[in-house]
Amino acid sequence: IPPHLSPFFKALLIVFQGKLTLLRDTKTDGSFLVHHFLSFYLKAGCKVCFVALLQSFSHYNIIAQKLGVSLTAAKEQGQLVFLEGLKSCFDVLFGEEQHVGQPNPLQFISEDGSNLKTIYEFVRTSLMASGSDSWKCPVLLVDDLSVLLSLGVRPVAVLDFIHYCRVAVCSQLKGNIVVLVHSNDDSEDEENELVVNSLCHQSNLILWAEGLATGFCKDVHGQLKIIQKGSSELKAERNLLRIYQYKIQDKNVTFFARGMSAAVL
Amino acid sequence: MAALATGGATPSDGATSFQRKVPASSRLAAIAGTRPSVRHGQLLLSSGLPSLDCVLGGGLAVGTLLLIEEDKYGIYSNLLFKYFLAEGIVCGHNLFVASAKEDPADILKELPAPLFDDAHKNQVDEKETAIKSKQESQESMKIAWRYQNLPKVEVSPAASARFGHYYDVSKTVSPELLQSIKWHRFFLPEEMSLHPEIKTCNMTYGYTRLLQSIQRIIYQEGFDGSYPQKKQKNILRIGIQSLGSVLWGDDVCCADNPEDIHSLTKFLYVLRGLLRMSLSACIITVPAHLIQNKAIMERVTNLSDTVVGLESFIGSERETNPLYKDYQGLIHVHQIPRLNSLICDVSGTKDLAFRLKRKLFTIERLHLPPDLSDTVSRSSKQDLAESTKLLSSGCGAMAIGKKHLDF
């Protein structure tokens, strides 16, 4: 019976408050991790602000239902604040001028890319604790950060945005941040590599999904490296590294030790 | 996409669990030329090439973008572009053709003609005889008189009910078939004088105009569901030729350090939003081999749904290599989207080649012919290619040395 990772994540929730988790994928699609964290935090009763830049709401909703959570219900109850990037971008370009109310979070697209203030304001106001809230620690989830560079935002601005969010969400609100980035060993996208490397240094936990070096395999879809930073940088504790292989199925992901895929045993 | 989500939806609060779920297939299959995916009910379109549909997991999903990385001379990518549009004509979809170098009317005139096989021809013939017999048989029935007043067989329009068709590249589509569908055009030289009415967001003028044009068509024709009273839904097939080339006003293809590397990616992002909110699908060909800055192609890939690269053998040493004599080039499937699901229908075969033979274009698994030479060991593709190179330079002895040792 392959070991499941959920007890590991449950333990994380107790220990992990005010931390930055980096989801990273190389030569494969790491979005299954995003879906997992979304449903995990919603089930755990946390207030989640999800900045979904690449896919539509119904996409996440359908998958979340397979994982046992209804995003529509979570939105109605106020547990989930969902930013549908594609729709907001449409409003920026084709919508009416908005003078009243909150500015569009994706307004930065029409600017020079030097800052992400509009999105930061959105995140901060969404996760600010209101009196009637009974949710546990707030969580900011971003899918994905690499897209911002494609929209003309400078890498420094992306890092500033994460920094501001860490101050607001991790330090002040004692919440967690989970962001997804894409990277490649032989990537020529220097701006992206800069962002990814910098985030690697800043994050407390890195989940790195990689395609197998030997190529495509039907039974093992990839390898997941879990790097947990030592709790105290002063004491120079070693990073904890775990490697699992995984197979993605329709309703869940199974993890197993390397070479122990069900197809092989 | 919300309008197309099917199956697995939980009943709303208050409804009992005995609520009968409307079978998704009956509702969705109402749109001609589409079929729901077997796995997750996602509505699929044919790309015009049944063999490509297989490779892509059944077809192209509605609301997604198919990006083709052009081969060096753009010959085969242009073929795929035309197949996509031709399929739209046969299915009765609406077309939106955008180009910066060719007049869209000329592109449409050169689309390949559909090949109707015998079974389909009989179907079409049957429909014709049904119309004739309907008009003739008004006499009363003597034995089955109870069925006298039942309606006769309804004749559906000539749109084909099949998913995926074959085309004859040596013939062009008939003008009658062309006139039967509604299509929209965007030819950049015509649009240069007009000012864009939307915010440019620092995008190239050509891209901004194109986005505005696409959005206008989607809104006016109701592809985004803005006319719910319209019973008959249809698909909008968008084709954009050679996006990113110099003719679009973008210098990503001709400069090592382009002035604005974000124009193309911003365009793709906004286009993605437009596609996701409408009943449409888009094919874009990009001269990727001309883009020096590989970072741009990485970002373009991440912003596209399905990405396919074509590599033709023209002008390369593989053109004369006996291993590849049956094929005209290789096809690389760089990306297949995961939509509404954790998994995607990725095919196990990674070595694919295409061939244009006897007017038909097919994509097949690349397989090496049996090694009937005297040597025991089989040389790999690489070895043979290398040895061919060496042979051509006249170093025969060296070539033999490169092969595996033969005990």
From TrEMBL, chain A:
UniProt KW keywords:
Cytoplasm, Nucleus, tRNA processing
The pathway is:
tRNA modification; 5-methoxycarbonylmethyl-2-thiouridine-tRNA biosynthesis
Which terms in the GO cellular component ontology are assigned?
cytoplasm; elongator holoenzyme complex; nucleus
Q: Where in the cell is it found?
A: Cytoplasm; Nucleus
Q: Which GO terms describe its biological process?
A: tRNA wobble uridine modification
Q: Does the keyword tRNA processing apply?
A: yes
Q: What is its main location?
A: cytoplasm
Q: Which residues form the signal peptide?
A: none
InterPro entries, from UniProt? Answer: ELP6, P-loop_NTPase
Superkingdom per UniProt: Eukaryota
Report the sequence similarity comment from the record. Answer: Belongs to the ELP6 family.
- Report what the protein is called: Elongator complex protein 6
Which organism is the protein's source?
A: Chelydra serpentina (Snapping turtle)
UniProtKB/TrEMBL annotation, chain B:
Chief site of localization = cytoplasm
Pathway(s) where this gene product acts? tRNA modification; 5-methoxycarbonylmethyl-2-thiouridine-tRNA biosynthesis
Which key words are in the record? Cytoplasm, Nucleus, tRNA processing
Query: According to its record, what are the GO cellular component terms?
Result: cytoplasm; elongator holoenzyme complex; transcription elongation factor complex
Subcellular location per UniProt equals:
Cytoplasm; Nucleus
Provide the GO biological process annotations. Answer: tRNA wobble uridine modification
Q: Which Pfam families match?
A: PAXNEB
Under the heading Gene3D superfamilies, the entry gives: P-loop containing nucleotide triphosphate hydrolases
CDD domains the UniProt entry points to: Elp4
Q: What are the boundaries of the region Disordered?
A: 1-21
Family annotation (InterPro entries): Elongator_complex_protein_4, P-loop_NTPase
The family annotation for this protein states: Belongs to the ELP4 family.
This chain's function reads: Component of the elongator complex which is required for multiple tRNA modifications, including mcm5U (5-methoxycarbonylmethyl uridine), mcm5s2U (5-methoxycarbonylmethyl-2-thiouridine), and ncm5U (5-carbamoylmethyl uridine). The elongator complex catalyzes the formation of carboxymethyluridine in the wobble base at position 34 in tRNAs.
| Protein name (database record) | Elongator complex protein 4
Q: Which organism is it from?
A: Chelydra serpentina
Record lineage: Eukaryota, Metazoa, Chordata, Craniata, Vertebrata
